[in-house]
Design goal:
CATH architecture of the largest domain in chain A: Orthogonal Bundle
Radius of gyration of chain B: 18 Å
Number of helices of chain A: 12
Strand content of chain B: 15-25%
Order of helices and strands of chain A: HHHHHHHHHHHH
Strand order of the largest sheet of chain B: 6-7-8-3-9-10
Largest interface: A-C, 47 and 47 residues
Distance between the termini of chain B: 32 Å
Structural class of chain B: alpha/beta
Number of domains of chain A: 2
Number of strands of chain B: 10
Helix content of chain B: 25-40%
CATH superfamily of the largest domain in chain A: MetI-like
Radius of gyration of chain A: 24 Å
Oligomer: heterotrimer
Shape of chain B: globular
Chains: A mainly alpha, B alpha/beta, C mainly alpha
Distance between the termini of chain A: 44 Å
Order of helices and strands of chain B: EEEHEEEHHHEHEHEEH
């Protein structure tokens, strides 16, 4: 084998190259299907979607809608983190509170919240408030649960050791429980972000007068798959970026974590 | 050894659980003992005989059902971080802190002023031979090094008493040997009073000034064997006749107790741990 | 050791839960009858129960329930079969796992419900779009778990079986499948739950029939008591379905 052949082989061997290859293949398939097999009313080829991306942004109200949605996500996430942290600590640190309230929390977490989406809209209106509320309602639960778990699964020997060295309750909380809980907290935030994305976007798709939900409905009703795809692609990209940010934060703060 | 009594244990017994409970167990039975200042006393005995329980009682982590413990004349009613430091078998270093931060944190808990902390930390890390690993995380260290770090943390608290609960129990034989020798050297330089719980006959004989042999559960001290050999103990001591004689004596005392424990629980010694 | 004390505290926390729920219901009743909370926001619980009874008695729920369950059933059937098959094929080689697994995990991290408008555009407002979306979303946990299950079977087991002369089919049936089954079953349970949620969700957002749609319809008509009744009904149905699926999962795991 020549040097060039070996290099080529080693490149294909790399999984990430193959992965990109698969993605490109899918795009080609999409392109072919959209151009020759499927009615253009229903499916738009990626090439056209890409080129029309600018048109999406030029559509009146779309950039504002994207900004509003992004803002809704941010507020919902921030609120979820704060509420989740407070409730999680309150429940996790007090064994009695934990035994009493955890089943209630788990019960709430297990119910299909999507059934009460219309209720949220009725209560909070069709503006951003209901989207934020629905997002928070999805985001707090993973955060609460992971914080409770993080506080609960601390090795008892660490607490005993601290006590034996004369640590006060506050010192134990600050120097032992809190640092121990941080990886769980960040894992919870990662899941919380997923929940917030789900909640806010669901609410947006349900009813929206100025948010992105308005435009998805508009593009759907006008049978405009090009711009619909474009908009959704932008939102998907937003979701990926937000998820990635939280994931990196988690990895950074969990460096010492071995389990 | 100055002859002054550091720890006075009077008629201590302890049971776990209420009388009516199915899991009620008398772990420790009417134990009394005086430990002199600067002495290294080993507690040895079969599993579940209450030696760890006694250690926790001495250290104030456990309130005995009956009896009292006095440390330097003061009655023990809870943890006494200024006087007593622990080294546990299970790794009790905080995994999110470096070795240095771990040692430092112990002093924060105890209340050592900031100005002194760094110097003390450096001293104790040097004493255990971890000077170059101060910035490592526990996860990056071997078991033996982690226990050295735990020891450094305990030493930095500069307490008069050190309570060690099978600190080398989770380590392999060779590491134990080295750590035991290093401990002996270390202790010869201080006048700390040490109570050391172990399963290993050889370890007890090598380290202790006296060995207290426990009976099977409910445990009490069966006999106390003195080991008259100055610290720091030479590694050669292990092969000497005196060593073998003492070790054999311990074996004789323990063997029946171990058998008794196994017969009672049907479980091999070492599988049960006193809380 | 502290058994009686533990029993007491368990009793105490159960009573806290019971009291909590009772207080909630009582507050609800008082709020709507005495304290003048608008019945547009919160209907009288008595009315809700009456409506629920009426729905059940008249069998009105059957039509929507059938639609939703059919969509769920078909969607799950599609995702389960394709998911397990594709997952197995991918798990056969470490290279393929390294290529595809991050791809799937990455796609799944995006809320796929986002693509609902596309599905509606393509399939219309009928059940087809719900089925397609449900199948798409539930495909991922099933596939990912199948890959994990088959792909990470302890090497030593495979080696041991091979050394005793096991053929490919035997290896699959007696080693790979039992080893992978618990994880696969978990994936299927997750897939089912997620399919149910996405189907109700898509019925809520864009549909002409089904339980989700029914609730929206009642909301638009401001028929609060009946809507609450349906919400309770759906929550109970979801609970029953999830319990059944969890029980099946546990049973399947026990026999391994």
């Amino acid at each position: 084998m020549t040097a060039a052949e070996i290099t080529l082989r080693s490149w294909v061997r790399r999984a990430w190259v193959a992965r990109i290859g698969v993605v490109i293949l899918l795009f080609i398939l999409w392109e072919v299907a959209a151009r020759w097999w499927v009615d253009p009313m229903f499916l738009s080829p990626p090439s056209r979607v890409l080129m029309s991306l600018q048109a999406v942004f030029d559509t009146r109200g779309v950039p504002a809608a994207l900004r509003i949605t992004f803002w809704e996500l941010g507020v919902a996430f921030a609120m979820s983190v704060v509420i989740g942290l407070v409730v999680g600590l309150a429940v996790g640190l007090q064994p009695f509170a934990q035994k009493s309230f955890m089943p209630i929390i788990l019960l709430l977490y297990g119910t299909p919240q999507v059934t009460i989406l219309p209720l949220f809209i009725l209560y909070f209106g069709i503006g951003p408030a209901s989207k934020i509320a629905f997002g928070v309602s999805h985001g707090i639960f993973p955060i609460i649960l992971t914080i409770v778990a993080g506080v609960q699964n601390i090795k008892p020997i660490l607490l005993t050791s601290a006590r034996s060295m004369g640590a006060s309750r506050w010192q134990v909380l600050r120097h032992v429980i809190f640092p121990h809980m941080i990886p769980s907290f960040f894992a919870g935030m990662r899941l919380g972000m997923t929940g917030v994305l789900l909640g806010v976007l669901l609410a947006e798709l349900y009813v929206s007068t100025a948010g992105i939900g308005y435009f998805t409905t508009l593009f759907t009703q006008n049978f405009d798959p090009t711009r619909l795809f474009g908009l959704i692609a932008v939102l998907a990209a937003m979701a990926i970026v937000l998820n990635e940010i939280v994931r990196r934060a988690e990895a950074h703060f969990s460096r010492w974590h071995t389990d | 050894m100055t002859g002054e009594t550091a720890i006075r244990i009077k008629n201590v017994s302890h049971h776990f659980g209420e009388e009516s409970d199915a899991r009620h167990v008398l772990a420790l039975r009417d134990t009394s003992l005086d430990i002199a200042r600067g002495e290294l006393l080993c507690l040895i005995g079969p599993s579940g005989c209450g030696k760890s329980t006694l250690l926790n009682v001495i250290g104030g982590l456990l309130a005995p059902t009956t009896g009292t413990v006095e440390v330097f004349g003061k009655k023990v009613a809870g943890p006494m971080p200024r006087d007593i430091a622990f080294v546990f078998q299970e790794n009790a270093l905080f995994p999110w802190n470096t070795v240095f931060e771990n040692v430092n944190l112990g002093m924060v808990f105890q209340g050592v002023p900031r100005a002194e902390r760094e110097a003390r930390a450096r001293r104790s890390l040097e004493a255990v031979g971890l000077k170059d690993f101060a910035q490592h995380y526990p996860g990056q260290l071997s078991g033996g090094m982690r226990q050295r770090a735990a020891l450094a943390r305990a030493l930095s608290l500069e307490t008069g008493i050190l309570l060690m609960d099978e600190p080398f129990g989770a380590l392999d034989e060779q590491t134990r040997m080295i750590l035991g020798e290093d401990l002996s050297v270390l202790l010869s330089r201080t006048d700390k009073t040490i109570v050391f719980v172990t399963h290993s006959l050889g370890e007890a004989t090598f380290l202790a000034d006296r060995v207290a042999v426990f009976s099977a559960r409910p445990g009490t001290i069966k006999q106390i064997i003195p080991v008259d050999e100055p610290h720091p103990r030479n590694p050669d001591f292990v092969t000497s006749e005196k060593f073998t004689a003492i070790r054999n004596q311990l074996y004789g005392l323990l063997h029946d107790e171990i058998r008794k424990t196994m017969a009672e629980t049907g479980v091999p010694a070492g599988a049960e741990h006193a809380p | 050791m502290r058994e009686s004390r533990e029993r007491n505290s368990r009793l105490a926390s159960r009573s806290v839960q019971a009291v909590f729920l009772i207080v909630l219901v009582v507050l609800w009743y008082l709020a709507t009858t005495r304290w003048g909370v608008s019945s547009i926001l919160l209907p009288n619980p008595v009315l809700v129960v009456q409506q629920l009874w009426d729905i059940l008695k008249s069998g009105e729920f059957l039509g929507d329930l059938r639609v939703t369950l059919t969509e769920l059933g078909i969607a799950f059937a599609i995702s389960a079969t394709t998911g397990v098959t594709i997952g197995y094929l991918i798990s056969r080689s470490h290279y393929r796992i390294r290529v595809f697994e991050p791809l799937f995990a990455g796609i799944y991290s995006v809320p796929i419900i986002l693509f609902l408008p596309l599905y509606v555009l393509f399939f219309g407002l009928g059940p087809a779009s719900k089925i397609a979306l449900g199948a798409t979303i539930s495909f991922f946990p099933i596939t990912l778990n199948t890959i994990a299950g088959f792909g990470y079977v302890d090497r030593i087991l495979v080696v041991a079986a091979r050394s005793m002369g096991a053929s490919d089919v035997q290896l699959f049936r007696y080693v790979l499948l039992p080893a992978a089954l618990p994880i696969i079953l978990t994936g299927m349970r997750m897939g089912f739950t997620v399919a149910l949620l996405s189907i109700i969700g898509s019925e809520t957002i864009a549909s002409l029939a089904g339980l989700g749609h029914r609730i929206v319809h009642l909301a638009e008509g401001m028929e609060m008591p009946r809507m609450f009744a349906y919400i309770a009904f759906v929550v109970v149905i979801a609970l029953i379905l999830n319990t059944i699926v969890s029980a099946l999962e546990a049973r399947g795991k026990r026999h391994v």
